[in-house]
């Protein structure tokens, strides 16, 4: 799992796979999941990171929460 943080945009992108992008779906205005052609999640975009994040509904939730916590990002239950 690879994370890229854009401080200026206050956004983080979490790479779950190297598979090519096919389409994306917004969970809400601050969370988007990208998918491969076979519907496998390949990445997650999270906005407003400095305010804390809701991880409910994200793929690989436990791993994502651990990676975000390791970087000092607040997680809301």
Provide a descriptive summary of the structure in words.
With 77 residues, the chain is mainly beta. It has one domain (2-76). Strand 3 (23-28) and strand 4 form a beta hairpin. The chain is globular, with a radius of gyration of 12 Å. The chain has one helix at residues 61-70; strands at residues 2-6, 11-15, 23-28, 31-35, 41-47, 53-54, 75-76. Helices cover 13% and strands 42% of the residues. The protein has 1 helix and 7 strands; from the N terminus they run E-E-E-E-E-E-H-E.
Q: How would you summarize this macromolecular structure in one to three sentences?
A:
With 77 residues, the protein is mainly β. The protein has one helix at 61-70, and strands at residues 2-6, 11-15, 23-28, 31-35, 41-47, 53-54, 75-76. The protein contains 1 helix and 7 strands.
Distance between the termini: 22 Å
Strand order of the largest sheet: 1-2-5-4-3
The tally of domains stands at 1
Largest sheet: 5 strands, antiparallel
The low-confidence runs, each spanning 5 or more residues with pLDDT under 50, are none
Class based on secondary structure composition and strand pairing: mainly beta
Instruction: Summarize the amount of helix as a percent range.
Output: 10-25%
The overall pLDDT, averaged over residues, is: 96
Radius of gyration from CA coordinates: 12 Å
Beta-strand residue fraction: 35-45%
Task: Name the helix and strand elements from N-terminus to C-terminus, one letter apiece.
Answer: EEEEEEHE
Beta-strand segment tally: 7
Q: Number of DSSP helices?
A: 1
- Shape, please? globular
Detail the topology: elements first, then pairings:
Elements: E1 2-6, E2 11-15, E3 23-28, E4 31-35, E5 41-47, E6 53-54, H1 61-70, E7 75-76
Parallel strand pairs: 6-7
Antiparallel strand pairs: 1-2, 2-5, 3-4, 4-5
């Amino acid at each position: 799992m690879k994370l890229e943080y854009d401080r200026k945009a206050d956004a983080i992108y979490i790479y779950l796979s190297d598979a090519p992008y096919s389409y994306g779906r917004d969970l809400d205005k601050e969370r988007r999941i990208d998918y491969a052609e076979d519907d496998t999640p390949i990445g997650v975009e999270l906005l407003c990171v400095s305010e804390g994040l809701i991880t409910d509904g994200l793929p690989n939730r436990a791993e994502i929460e651990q990676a975000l916590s390791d970087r000092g990002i607040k997680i809301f239950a």
